[in-house]
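Q: Structure tokens for this one, please.
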Amino acid sequence: MKLLSALIALGLSGAFLHADQKITVTGNDFMQFDLKEFTVSAGEKVDLEFKNIGKMPKIAMGHNLVILKEGISALKFGQKIMGMGASATNPIPEASKIDVLAATKLLGPDESDTITFTAPKPGVYQYLCSFPGHFAMMRGTMTVK
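A: Here is the predicted structure, written as tokens:
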């Protein structure tokens, strides 16, 4: 109880105890996200867990989940990063990160990664897998209310 009181006094209670919202998304060898859309509340902390449930090697079928800033098209972003030389070893070229709100690591089979971020202002935010070519099929939307 003393620890909790100390954390609250420091304004750290939410930072260490839990996220306001938890979302889990999977990707598979058929280049599909199981969740094509989800909704979160503006200003709340979000834990997003992404799991690659596929079995193909990472170099051939790695997956990540990249949430783009408001107004950025997943299709246009995917095309842009292909032109920047995106690859299995560099799925998000440095110069493209200006368009990214949050992103998981590129994952191989049976791997997972959790990212934590604060949900931005209300709006619709697109997400995709940035492994070369996957953006054509692996896309979704995060709605912030």
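A few notes: The beta strands are 21-27, 37-40, 45-52, 66-68, 100-103, 112-118, 123-128, 139-144. The CA atoms of residues 5 and 100 lie 36 Å apart.
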